[in-house]
Amino acid sequence: MLQVRATVRNLNPYTTDENPPLLRFHANESPYNLPTKIRESVAKKIKDFEFNHYPDADCSNIRELIAKQIGFEKENILLGNGSDELIGMIIQAFCGDDDKILIPKPTFTMYKQIAVANNVNVAEVKLNSHFDLPGNFFEKIDFFQPKVIFLSYPNNPTGNLFNEETIEKLLENDSILTVIDEAYFHFSDKTFIEKIREKKNLIILRSFSKVGLAGIRAGYLVADPEFVRDLNKVRLPYNINSFSQLVLTEALNNWDEIEKNFLKVKTERENLIKELSNFTFFNICKTSANFVLLKVNNFKTQYIFNVLRENDITVRYFEGSELLEHYIRVTVHKKKENTKLIKALQLIE
Ligand SMILES: Cc1ncc(COP(=O)(O)O)c(C=O)c1O
User: What is the CATH number of domain 19-33+256-346?
Assistant: First the structure.
């Protein structure tokens, strides 16, 4: 029988909880919907929307708005259908069959998934006990000779920021492309974006999914204009649909409204951490993202998952993961929902 390639057959699909309960603590989304003002403005415009036309293929306006927001040129920016798509475009454009990407372990799963699906080799370097890049990081790089290194900054699922000096040293290596994935930048306020002005071997990835726009699937990358031109050659036409472009335009034109929401998440993160620190059956990992990783003692994480699930809460636990067997990850929610999580956790203790 005709079959897909063995590498693809052996992959596990990206799955999410198919029937998530009311309280979604598992997906690192924003707990806040888009501000009413933006939704009303979208609603008004949808009435005369020209569904019969293809969208603007270059996302010209949106790139202009992003460029203005971050202080770069439109030519530095490329839009993706979620930053996931941009990860795919980078791997497709930079890596041939003999090339390798290097990623920390643990990190965001899609780097490996996309690379493997594209027949690109993956070298994984285990993080140290603080989930930072290990002391032998550069030896590993010398050994594996990767073409591209992906660093999630802050790292998902651990939540921490890697050592800044290590990343700066890495950027000195002009023969490696470093991709710094700043999907959680809005909660960390730490960025390497200014390095784009002096370093050609750097791409910054950003996502709109964590600040209230997960439903429209949009992210962008910032890079040298020559990279942007080349990456554009592997982009599928019209990758950002018209509806997403409309919402993005309204969102970017009213960014101060969106900013209020991610600032609230940062405040709630501190409150949640304070509440979580009263528990003795887990330790809290340091986080700069909109989620918190907890190291669970004494209980199986699946047991905790099940108890929470009975209380209409879903969290992320890492079934089958050797490194994260004892961890659960919870997304920061609004105060009321965070309190429900705390109450449900108290049933366990
Ligand atoms: C580190 C990291 N990069 C990229 C993504 C993908 O984001 P998007 O929704 O923009 O595709 C995620 C999603 O969780 C993530 O955690």
Answer: 3.90.1150.10
Separation CA 74–CA 67 (nearest Å): 5
Of 184, 209, 287, the one to substitute when testing ligand 1's pocket (max ligand atoms within 8 A of C-beta) is: 209
Distances (CA, A) of 344 to 265, 281, 305: 21, 14, 11
Mean pLDDT (the chain) is: 96
C-alpha angle 277-20-270 in degrees, rounded to nearest 5 = 25
For the entire predicted model, the pTM comes to: 0.96
Interatomic CA distance for residues 223 and 318, integer angstroms:
33
Determine the distance separating the centroid of ligand 1 and the alpha carbon of 243, expressed in angstroms. Answer: 20
Q: Does domain 47-253 have CATH number 3.40.640.10?
A: yes
Ligand 1 center–CA 215 separation, angstroms = 13
Ligand 1 center to 348 CA (angstroms): 31
Ligand 1 pocket: which of 17, 107, 110 to mutate (most atoms within 8 A of CB): 110
| Domain spans in the chain, listed from the N-terminal domain onward | 19-33+256-346, 47-253
Q: How close is the Cα of 157 to the center of ligand 1, in Å? A: 11
How much of the chain, in percent, has pLDDT values that exceed 90?
93
Position 302: which residue type?
Answer: Q
pLDDT tens-digit map of 306-336: 999 999 999 999 988 889 999 999 999 999 9
